[in-house]
Design brief:
By secondary structure, the chain is an alpha/beta fold. It folds into two domains: 166 residues, 3-Layer(aba) Sandwich (Peroxisomal Thiolase, Chain A, domain 1), CATH 3.40.47.10; 151 residues, Peroxisomal Thiolase, Chain A, domain 1. It has ten helices and 13 strands. The strands form four sheets. Strands 1-7-6-4-5 form a five-stranded mixed beta sheet, sandwiched between helices. The two termini are 12 Å apart.
């Protein structure tokens, strides 16, 4: 599909919480946190996801110099259950009348939304699509689960997607997603829906907080991600050396490093920002993309490989000619 990213932007909250500061809250040492998660510091936002997302969106819209005809929310956790968070993005941006809705796939929301947006553009349904991923993961931390609490950080990122003309050589080359429901209970927020409603007597405070079985996820995901990498490269007649930049979901320090250790990718080509941002849920992948662009690690014509996991357990990947 001939599509082109014409705008990129991100927002990182000003307040930095170091792992040394967090250690007292979870009763673990700074060294324990860094060794388990790879996170030395993360951002903690004082504003909500709609304002965060709008800040990132303004940067991407200014770069693209357009008014969107569709706004997609591609975040992990919304501002509230109803109305959709995309409505609040539009309000913060001072826009009106633009169709707005969510495409939700937990930490893979950005990739799934990017694929859907590319199809919309290819079909002529929309022409200038704004995708926003904004997550405030620190709001859902459970300090009684030290590893997951140490992982999460806050951030927002946004892109503008438009149709590319043939000679621009920007296109979406391949996309794959697989879901393995055996992992449904490995990463979850049990409350907030119909299962454990806030009014139910059996709903506990911890049901409304983030819960994760880190070792279980890593064990299940590593082999499946590795198989996905091999199949993607084989189907597209590529080797790891052909990829200019690998942008993974920043699931954990161990998970990001696995792409080099087990996948055969040059460590210098793998964007690794988790030590200073933490796992920013669905915002992780577009945040890594935006930071790579800001640091001049990305140029037109580069072959980008996106890969990651989401609660479910879901695995997603995409090859994109930037």
């Amino acid at each position: 599909m001939n599509i082109k990213i014409t705008g990129i932007g991100h927002y990182l909250p000003e307040h930095i919480e170091t792992s040394k500061e967090l250690s007292a809250k979870i009763n673990k040492s700074e060294d324990w946190i860094v060794s388990r998660t790879g996170v030395k510091e993360r951002r903690v936002s004082k504003i909500d996801v709609d304002e965060m997302g709008a800040k990132a969106a303004r940067i991407s819209l200014k770069m693209a110099n357009i008014k969107p005809d569709l706004i997609l929310n591609a975040s992990g956790v919304g501002k509230q259950v109803i109305p959709d968070t995309s409505v609040f993005f539009q309000r913060e941006l001072g826009l009106n009348g633009i169709p707005s809705f969510s495409i939700h796939a937990t930490c893979l929301s950005f990739l799934v939304a990017l694929h859907a947006a590319a199809n919309y553009i290819e079909q002529g349904s929309y022409n200038k699509i704004l995708i926003i991923s904004s997550d405030r993961g620190t709001r859902g931390r459970n300090y009684n689960e030290p590893e997951s609490a140490a992982l999460l950080g806050d951030a927002a990122a946004a892109i503008v997607l438009e149709k590319a003309v043939e000679n621009e050589n920007s296109k979406l080359l391949s996309y794959k997603m697989e879901t393995w429901p055996q992992g449904a209970n490995l990463t979850e927020v049990r409350g907030g829906g119909t299962n454990l409603h806030p009014q139910d007597n059996k709903t506990t405070l911890e049901d409304n907080l983030f819960s994760m079985n880190g070792p279980g996820i890593y064990k299940m995901a590593r082999k499946k991600v590795y198989e996905r990498l091999k199949e993607d490269l084989k189907e597209n007649n590529l080797t790891p050396n052909d990829i200019n930049l690998l942008i993974p979901h920043q699931a954990s320090g161990l998970a990001v490093k696995a792409y080099s250790k087990y996948g055969g990718f040059d460590e210098k080509k793998v964007i690794n920002i988790i030590d200073t941002t933490g796992n920013c849920v669905a915002a992780s992948i577009p945040l890594a993309l935006s930071i790579a662009y800001e640091q001049n690690k990305l140029k037109r014509g580069d072959l980008i490989y996106f890969a990651g996991t989401g609660a479910g357990l879901s695995i997603g990947s995409m090859l994109l000619k930037f």
